[in-house]
């Protein structure tokens, strides 16, 4: 037999329950793989139905439609003479499994259920699926009649097995199994498996990509072999962005790298590799060979097919490459931008509206939309017909070609500065200048009349007129007056989102963008149902520190000079009266903590799993050079009081792009009560006792 095998993996922008679109993208990936000479094609996890079906996995319809798609794949000439490995849910003996279905020439070779389910953070696989717990065990699976009619098979192997082709041996892993301490590839490699495959549904988190790459490369560094990873990409219907990074590795080195962020719905990587390189690499690892001689063998499914050709001596093989990682600022520029594009085109809206205050957060959101426009123009320039078709539909012009990001931004992005008597001319000017530089359609509105009307209704009913604290009012009055302004901005944002295009004689409506960052959400430093309430929020999972670095990146890479003054201005809500025409209110003074401190609290609370006492114990060492134990105790107590008092706001938080592992997203990532005993009496007493000892 030959020695050079040609294999393909892909990153597909699948969409939950979009069976028609998902099938079309799978077919495209198979066509590309075959056109490049591949004899094996690997796809992402649960690619047939889309990974993010959530509780739809309970529905028999999801299983039925998945098998209907599989039927189309099996009977199509496009899948002839290539081993296809696709993902879908399968019900076996009344138990749902997350499976790979591997087939060749209208015959199903193996259904391989997932062994280790992802169940942390955003993942809830144990809610819908059961892990396969029978190691190296295969059972008979009775196929549905629609599949039997195509394959002529009544039953097929179901379980933990590997495929033995005429020239090599392949073993499958599914996503989480790569991350598990007892990954199947270890034992499979010892049992002679030379090609490992991994179908993933792995989402983007800032600074995470290198971990995935290191895991793939290390999987074959100790044991030798070829590792092929496929992943979903894009927004498939919720807060997550699946970030591609399909890759092929051999003997601990990357030989093919896919993009992490891209508007291409289908991306296929193909590599030709020499099996003898695997065998010679393993030959000199004596510890591996000793362990291999004692391994418990896997059931082997024999496949009368080869991944190589008999006469392949002159076939060139792929060489190792150096993986290029994005900086965190590039990740913020690209990830949320791609997520926004998917949301915009799939929601069939005509663009975005952003309340632009002239501060860092809303400006960063505006820059992400501008980055999206850059990505669209670049994709069209590179010949992406899907992006061009979507852009034409969004702007309602069948002849339109997006070439200039600023011009495209004018068509799909509306910014709105909503001034009150408490707004400064500086923020107004900053917002206007940034809008000019990115090209957005900009509106300036004064909300004083609406504020006075709402407060006037209260005064008529009660006979009392609330005042700001600087005018002699109580803190209750002042806070209520600030909240009225903030909430009226939300109401006006939705009004303008619905009717701005109507007023301009254009069809469609706009999606409202929010711009509360992850730190403010954690602290609860926002008005419930203010402009943080929107349709989606691209920066809701990003810290203030990272956003500042991103703003600097935009100054340098997009030449947005308006951002310089925004960077230098102290963050402010501008909800209290000005003093001599200048802003007197600042965010950090209002919060009673700095953004740098808040970022530390967030990481300790979520990632380090620290309650009040544990956080105090960690911080007295971290901050021993700058704070006394009593000062640390005071800071920790203040944070937990404010966090718990405001936790209810997280229940209505706008769906946000997930980017940080300390996100306070109440939907499914950070599950906590929202009615706390905010005195924390027992916990704070423990801190006080320790302070007295110290």
UniProtKB/TrEMBL annotation:
EC supergroup of this enzyme: ligase
Q: Which GO terms describe its molecular function?
A: ATP binding; glutaminase activity; NAD+ synthase (glutamine-hydrolyzing) activity
| Gene Ontology CC | cytosol
The record's listing under InterPro entries reads: C-N_Hydrolase, C-N_Hydrolase_sf, Gln-dep_NAD_synthase, NAD/GMP_synthase, NAD_synthase, Rossmann-like_a/b/a_fold
Kindly state which keywords UniProt assigns to this record, in alphabetical order: ATP-binding, Ligase, NAD, Nucleotide-binding
Biological process (GO), any one: 'de novo' NAD+ biosynthetic process from L-tryptophan
Identify the metabolic or biological route this protein is part of. Cofactor biosynthesis; NAD(+) biosynthesis; NAD(+) from deamido-NAD(+) (L-Gln route): step 1/1
Q: Cite a single Pfam family from the UniProt record.
A: CN_hydrolase
Q: Which residues, if any, are the signal sequence?
A: none
Residue ranges the record marks as coiled coil: none
Question: What does the annotation say about its assembly with partners?
Answer: Homohexamer.
Q: What NCBIfam families would the database entry show?
A: nadE
| Similarity comment: family membership | In the C-terminal section; belongs to the NAD synthetase family.
Name assigned to this protein: Glutamine-dependent NAD(+) synthetase
> Which gene does this sequence derive from?
Nadsyn1
